[in-house]
Amino acid sequence: MPEYVDYAEYYDSDIAFPDDIPFYLGYANRTGSPVLELACGTGRILLPLAEAGHTVHGIDISENMLAIAREKVAQAGPAERISLTHANMADFDLPKKSFALIFVAFRSFMHLLTQEDQQACLSRVWSHLRPGGLFIVDVFSPNLSILASPCDPEYKVEKEYGLPNGHRVVRKHRFVKKDFINQINEVEFLFEEYGQSEQIARQRVVPIRMRYSFRYELQLLLDKAGFEIESLFGYFDKRAYDGKDEIIFVAAKPSD
C-alpha cells in the first residue's frame, strides 16, 4: 500500500493504542507458538508477544513499516523469536504452514478493497494455520450515521502528539469519497509537523482507502473459507458485540 510510505515514521506515535495487546497476548498464551500477524506494520503487537516468550512472524506490504520494525527488533527486541517478511496478506506463501495463531489486527483487513482479495487472504490464512489453530480478525463496526453524512470539504483536527525528535504533530482528516456500491471510504490524513520554533517543518497528505464489512458479511466470508466461529466480540475486553465499536471474530480451523 503506497500510502504507508509517508505514514510509517508517524505510525507509532499516531497509533498509541494499548487496548488490543493484552487481548492478542491472551490468545497467544492459549494457543502457543508460532504466531503469525498479517499487516504487522512496525511491530506494535509482535514485539510484546515475543517479549512474552512467543515465536512470532510478521508480514506487511509496506517496506517502510517493516524497516521500522526491524530497527526496533535490532535495538530492543528478542530477535531470535521474531521474523519478518515483505508480503501482501492477500497473496503470501511462507515456508511454515503450521501456525497456532494467525491474526490481522487494528482493522488492517479493511485495506483489502475487494471481496476477491478478502477471500484470497482467508484462503492463505487457512493454508498456513494448523488444524485446531485460531484466526482472529478485527474490523470496525460500520456507523450508519457517519456513512450517510456528506463528505468533508475541510480538514478537521483529530489529534495532536509529540514525536521522538521533539516535534509536535497535528493530525487532521477528512472524508473525500464514500463509495456505497463497493463499500469503500476514502479518507485523507493531513499531518502538520511543527518544529521547536512552532513553525511548520513538514506537511504531508496521506490518502487511505478502506473497505468496510458488516457483521454477517464477514461471518459469511469466514464460513465460506471453512472456519468455525468460536467467538464474536464488540471490543477487546470481550464485551458482547453491540454494533457500536469493533467486530472481532475468533475463528477456528477444524481439527483433522
Question: If you had to describe this structure to a student in words, what would you say it looks like?
Answer:
- The protein is an alpha/beta fold.
- The model has no long low-confidence stretch (mean pLDDT 95).
- Strands 3-2-1-4-5-11-10 form a 7-stranded mixed sheet, sandwiched between helices. Strands 6-7-8-9 form a 4-stranded antiparallel sheet, with no helix packed on it.
- The longest helix is centred in the first third of the chain and has 14 residues.
- It contains 7 helices and 11 strands.
- It is globular and about 60 Å long.
- A hairpin with a 5-residue loop joins strand 6 and strand 7.
- It folds into 2 domains: 181 residues, Vaccinia Virus protein VP39 (Rossmann fold), CATH 3.40.50; 68 residues.
Task: Give helix and strand order, one letter per element, not per position.
Answer: HHEHEHEEHEHEEEEHEE
Specify the CATH homologous superfamily of the largest domain. Answer: Vaccinia Virus protein VP39
Distance between the termini: 36 Å
Strand order of the largest sheet: 3-2-1-4-5-11-10
pLDDT < 50 runs, ≥5 residues: none
Backbone CA Rg: 18 Å
Count the helices. How many? 7
Number of strands: 11
- Classify the oligomer: single chain
Return the CATH architecture of the largest domain. 3-Layer(aba) Sandwich
Number of domains: 2
**Helix- and strand-based class?**
alpha/beta
Mean pLDDT equals 95
Please report the first level of CATH classification, the CATH class of the largest domain: Alpha Beta
Summarize the structure.
The protein is an alpha/beta fold.
